[in-house]
Amino acid sequence: MNLESSCKVCIGTKVKRYQRFLIALSVLLAGCQSKPAAEVSQSSPAAAATSPVSTLAPTPPPAEAAPENKPAPFRPSGPIEFVDVTAQAGIHFKHNSGAFGGKYLPETMGSGVCFIDYDNDGWQDIFLVNSMDWPGRQTGKSYPALYHNNHDGTFTDVTKQVGLAFESYGMGCAVGDYDNDGFDDLYVTTVGSNHLFHNLGNGKFLDVTAKAGVASPGFSASAVWFDYDNDGKLDLFVTHYIEWSIEKDQYCTLDNKNKSYCTPQTYKGESSHLYHNKGNGIFEDVTKKAGLADPTSKALGVALLDYDNDGWMDLFVSNDTEPNKLYHNNHDGTFTDMAVIVGVAFSDSGRVRAGMGTDAADIDGSGLPSLVIGNFTNESTSLYKNDGSGLFIDESPRSGLAQMTPQSLTFGCFFMDYDLDGLLDFVAANGHVSDDIAVVQPNLKYAQPAGVYRNMGDRKFEDVSGKLGRALQKPVVARGIAYADYDNDGDLDLLVTANNGPARLLRNENANQNDVLRVKLIGTRSNRDAIGANVTLTTTAGATLSRMVKSGSSYLSQSELPLTFGLGKPGTAKNLRLQIAWPSGQKESIANVKPNQFITVREGNGIISSAPINFAGIAASAAPSPQR
Ligand SMILES: [Ca+2]
Ligand SMILES: [Ca+2]
Ligand SMILES: [Ca+2]
Ligand SMILES: [Ca+2]
Q1: Helix (H) and strand (E) counts for the chain?
Q2: How far is the CA of 511 from the centre of ligand 4 (A)?
Q3: b/e string for 230-240 if b means 16 or more Cβ within 10 A?
Q4: Which of 65, 137, 145, 281 is deepest in the core (most CB within 10 A)?
Q5: In 190-280, where does DSSP find H-type helix?
Q6: What is the reported pLDDT for 559?
């Protein structure tokens, strides 16, 4: 242990004595400022068919009442497998890092993917971020790609016709309807000047960056849309990594012969930025005012969470070789970094780690979000349990993740219930940053297989990566990863990006032999995407699942906005109750919901549309196409 890290142990020990006092104090303060909550209750989704339906919503046709003598619908069987369907889906995207041998650091960091239903037809479309050739080394144009979902398992590249054929040294993306017009907008982070694309609702995007004031120049990474002041308008937080330019590029080497990619310690950090949505298409940079200015940070990932359950959105920011941050929302436009106090800034031995992707979710039915962070090789994945008193407990060894992940360099990662058993599993996209790593550390690989770790309950995980088909086992230099049910058959599919390589769509086969409920929320007083809304589902058997609608998470990427509740083995007596805590403070309760539907809930109006899940999928039959 070196001097630096032993100092951090000292700090950590001193801090622990004050932890419980400070947490108790902050809980008291939060209680004093809690919002008045309206309570709305709906008893049955039966009213769904007669409720008014917004034409802007992805509204599948109302479910028909099933006649008693109707045969049971088709259900798949067999082992769960993720199948590479990229080619048959018509996706042919390859990331261009611009690498030419000069080993500029950004080359090894990109890029991300976002699921976005940009045309509101109820089918998730795919946006892939691209980087480009370096100045003076242009070989051709490198554009990002928007793939429109054709509802039949295939996609069409619509990048040019929608107005997204632009060149930038792109890194990541984030999806959110910042102007509440019912169409999701797109933010693209870059090394350089970022872009905000307003979705015009007519199949076109308009670059409104200059008017909005969200260019956020520098080296941006992951971004997140969230409503930090609960005024119904989505604000934007953009992580920044390091101060880098071609002029400032440093020489580093692993083998004392050839140039290698430098580690971030070589460069100064760069402050992340918070932009407040003023509501007229203009944002105000409130980074300093909010207490978030921090040029020492080297942020790569951001996860939205409400860790103390006070109805105000907090942010967890993973940092590369710098302490992680947990920004507590003080309800007055400011944030306080609680990461050291709550125990998520450093490893258990007081060391900083190389945090990349991150996610927060309720993995144990406690109603509280646990935290996961993808780290460097030999550091293992970090898993922190939220103990409910405001502290986080490092459960990496107890969960088994610490022992299962030391060989992995994890970028994109998240909790996702891949087998729909109701327990959120952990999925990791891996790949080293140094293409020459095997020269100096022969046990490490540049291209690495993905990791899937099944939640066995009691917060223990098992490595099932080798049991889910060959596609996940293929070593790639993965970076971004996102999930969506792109084929609307009820189970969650994956899109994984590769650095300077092809993006791959991996279809989930057979997870939908378990029951499922899919939920889309539409905010009215809250932001229209309902980002930050928390849905608690209770089954007849008494099991409780809670899921939050979120932007951000993973690495440079964003998964679909609809929520998925895995409900385990099919049963006839299932009766579900939903309790929704909207960001506006409104509480809504919906009883007597049946599984195996896709339902849309509008704030204050209960279920406004529902459609049965088509388990046969698009390959086996013409899926009932949600209303256009
Ligand atoms: Ca769509
Ligand atoms: Ca706001
Ligand atoms: Ca599971
Ligand atoms: Ca699916």
Answers
A1: 9, 39
A2: 8
A3: bbbbbbbbbbb
A4: 145
A5: 209-212
A6: 98
HEC assignment per residue over 143-207: CCEEEEECCCCCEEECHHHHCCCCCCCEEEEEEECCCCCCCCEEEEEEEECCEEEEECCCCCEEE
DSSP secondary structure of 273-337: EEEEE-SSS-EEE-TTTTT---TT--EEEEEEE-TT-SSS-EEEEEEBSS--EEEEE-SSS-EEE
Could you tell me the distance, in angstroms and rounded to a whole number, from the CA of residue 512 to the centre of ligand 4?
Answer: 8
pLDDT of residue 348: 82
- Which ligand gives the minimal distance to the CA of 121? 1
> Ligand 1 centre from 486 Cα, in Å?
9
Ligand nearest to the CA of 184: 1
Write out residues in the chain with pLDDT < 50, as ranges. 1-39, 43-68, 620-628
User: Counting ligands in written order, which one lies closest to the CA of residue 417?
Assistant: 3
| Residue among 355, 351, 365, 287 nearest 316 (CA) | 355
Predicted model pTM: 0.89
What's the CA angle centered on 196, arms 496 and 492, to 5 degrees?
A: 30
Q: Find the 199 Cα to ligand 2 centroid distance in Å.
A: 19
Distance, CA 457 to ligand 3 centroid (Å)? 9
Average pLDDT over the chain, rounded to an integer:
89
Percent of the chain past pLDDT 70, that is, above it, reads 87
Separation of 379 CA from ligand 3 center, angstroms?
Answer: 25
Angstrom distance (rounded) from CA 533 to CA 530: 5
pLDDT value of residue 619: 56
Q: Model confidence over 279-306: pLDDT tens digits? A: 999 999 999 999 999 999 999 999 999 9
